[in-house]
Amino acid sequence: MxxxxxxxxxxxxxxxxxxxxxxxSRRGGFKLIFPSDKYLYYKSFFEEDxxxxxxxxxxxxxxxx
Length: 65
Fold this sequence. Notes:
- The chain is mainly α.
- It is built from four helices and no strands.
């Protein structure tokens, strides 16, 4: 499945998204808290903004819809 958001990403960001999706598939019984529907809430706990976190949030939102 190819998502429109992924097609717009750099090769490096696409690789990061792929790794993140693979990690999510192996999480077992653990709940994914970041990125999640509460992305903006959890984002406030980070010292600095990382652009990839925003990209992952958009990808995961697209998967949930």
